[in-house]
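cron nightly-structures :: item 1 of 1
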Amino acid sequence: MTDSGERSTGGDTLSFDLTSRPWIPVLWRDGTQGELSLRDVFARAGEVRRVVGDLPTQEFALTRLLLALAHDALEGPSDTEHWARLWADQDCFGPLAGYLDEHRERFDLLHPHTPFFQVASLRTARDEVFSLNRIVADVPNGEPFFSSRMPAVGSLGFAEAARWVVHAHAYDTSGIKTGIDGDERVKGGRVYPLGVGWAGTLGGVFAEGETLRQTLLLNLVAADTSGARFCDDDRPAWRHEPCGPGPAGRQRPSGVRDLYTWQSRRLRLHFDADGVHGVVLGYGDPLAPHNMHTDEPMTAWRRSRAQEKKRGEPLVYLPREHDPARSAWRGLEALVVGRAEAGQGAEAAKALRPGILEWIARLVTEGELPRGFLIRARVIGAVYGTQQSVIDDVVDDRLAMGVVLLHQHDRAYARQAIDAVSDAESAVTALGDLATDLARAAGSETEGRRSAARDLGFATLDGPYRTWLRDLTAAEDPGAHRTHWQQDAYRHVRRLGDRLMSEAGDAAWEGRVVATKKGSEWLNSALADTRFRFRLGKALSDPFPSDSSPKVPA
């Protein structure tokens, strides 16, 4: 094998053509799984439910790769009319076959001069080749006993290696990396932390349809979209000149094709005829996340006062990362409140919803999608730990909702959906207060009991809210539909309160004197229960008018 990782057998250089060789895992509509080449994944997109991956983050990275291909091959969409023609054409991805033939050489994973998403002849000063643990994210750094591949990844097949190459550019960890020969950033044989891969900075969001074909089309943002930056020279990585070992010097992508394939790392696989057995990995093109909201459509954004002060800029937006402890439905407002609606007068908006959902809002508002059309808002993100040098957790959730929630001129459905989340928050707060009162009455610690009760409350309401939200689209009166939710939430949380009461024990039943802001009072489980029923009714707007629950001061 040569230093560049190529090997000849029988006079022919090894090749793994991603346009024709199966490597993208998919879930078929009948529930079975398979692998497809780039050519076949577009040709059979209507038969595929979705792309899958070794990790959800890999699915996100592969989906963005497919979107970059579709944007470039279809040269658009240029506007909603162009998009509508694609949506109506069952063979809309037909041009991808010729496009992939044209650029086929850049999609050879093992090419000796232009290997896919790699740098030919990439080497360290000492010609080191490292374990594949560096790109396989399901091998915890320093925790091999929790890995299915312990103690290390010895080798990978070419198909799996290709997926991890795409994932590394998107989600590779930060930390000190071995310097690459020829990279001017190397100091003492090392390059100091430059941040995680671009997708790792995001709270990833995209829209899922019933098939991969629908998913790709729903996320194809038109070039004339307001508030989005597209340049005429926008092109994906395989239409740029091959990278060298150092940074390319570009500070900003030219559009989504460039961004979705951003080369945040420099890497080179080492392989033989049996597969890939090593990698050289270093930093590539850094990309700062502040104020990238006109470039990156697949995340929500939050305004950062701290960064505005630090940078001396009047307005700074940063990607809104996902909280692994918070289900997607609890953050619904960040998904359905439009960017124009989020701002109040001259004051800049505190948060911006993902550009992908702004785009779908435009489609439904202009009548290109029917109001009752259902999508799944898919949220995926990596949670990093220890100075972003390891991946601690991966967030993966989806929320089914009707596109009417995104309609720019009819906000009644969105308002009721958001307020229903507030109902749940208030009801769970009442449950947490009950747990606190019962703990105080028994003379035990309160914070752990309160936290456990809140977790139980949200877990119990999770399924019912998702079902209610899915059915909201078909409701003729969204206000009445919310009343049904309040009644349902009341029943669920009331039952949880009864459960806490039954588990409270004799000490809470007997009670004790506790200190309050107004002085001392006697608190036992009976009083705690009375207060809980009052608070729960108030939290949910007393959804049962004939309810005889005591109305006593909290």
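cron nightly-structures :: done
The first strand starts at residue 8 and ends at 9.
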